[in-house]
Amino acid sequence: MNTKGPMMVAGLGNPGLRYAETRHNAGFQVVESLGEWGSISLDKKKFDAEFGRGRMGGCDVLLVRPQSYMNRSGIPVQKLCHFFDVAVSDLVVVYDDIDLPLGRIRIREKGGHGGHNGIRSLIEQLGTRDFSRVRIGVGRPEGEQDVADYVLSGFSRQEKEIWLRVVERAREAVSCILQEGLSAAMQKYQS
Predict the structure, then answer these.
(1) Which H helix or E strand runs over 107?
(2) For residue 187, with 0-12 CB atoms within 10 Å meaning exposed, 13-18 middle and 19 or more buried, which class applies?
(3) Which of 31, 49, 131, 135 could form a Cys-Cys staple with 97, CB 3.0–4.6 A?
(4) Is residue 125 domain-resident?
(5) Which residues span the domain enclosing 24?
(6) Rounded (to 5) percent helix, strand, coil in the chain
């Protein structure tokens, strides 16, 4: 890990109340939960992103929510990485994944975009696939429902209970990454 700049946790989502409680805003929800838990207010704005800076698990950390809409997430994240001297190896990206069942978490050191437009944007802007990811399962739509409509929809009452637990578990997983490293988090929190 880089010792110059802070660690960055970037949660992906779409800005605005219309999207706040949707599946596609998993990353935003986890970063908000981290901020509340770690008393880091996401009240700063720069490069089309909301962020906060503080200490978690003994390390300097930036919590970031890009406000550029999902398919352009890479632009503000790249600019903040450059501005704050964050190494790509010190970037953790949290986002929704339709290929995982609702409630599942997958942690990876690097990888492709898997069809996720936010991750595609990050890879394009950062010029690498080598950043850590915490993927939050939101499941696939049933029947003929359009995937875009599905990820921009909210949760049923039954799903909401599962969702609140997975957001808390993902927050704990990210905290573990910051304190103990990626491999420890992979062992403890993948489901």
Answers:
(1) strand 105-108
(2) exposed
(3) 135
(4) yes
(5) 7-189
(6) 45, 20, 35
Residue 10 main-chain phi, psi, to 5 deg: -105, 120
Q: Tell whether residue 25 is among the known ligand binding residues.
A: no
- Residue 96: give its domain's CATH number: 3.40.50.1470
Which has more confidence, 1 or 110? 110
95 is in an annotated binding site: no
* The pLDDT of residue 61: 95
Chain centroid to CA 22: how far?
A: 14
What would the two tokens of residue 18 be? 């219309």
Count Cβ neighbours within 10 Å for each residue of 1-33 and write b for 16 or more, e otherwise.
Answer: eeeebbbbbbbbbbbeeebeebbbbbbbbbbbb
Nearest to 28 by CA among 46, 47, 42, 38: 42
Is 24 marked active-site?
yes
Helix (H, G, I), strand (E, B) or coil at 49: strand
User: Which ranges of the chain does DSSP label H, i.e. alpha helix?
Assistant: 26-38, 74-84, 117-126, 147-151, 157-180, 182-189
Query: Which residue matches tokens 């599962």?
Result: 162
Q: Are strands 7-11 and 59-66 parallel, antiparallel or unpaired?
A: parallel
69 labelled binding-site residue:
yes
| Tens-place pLDDT, residues 117-134 | 889 999 999 999 999 999
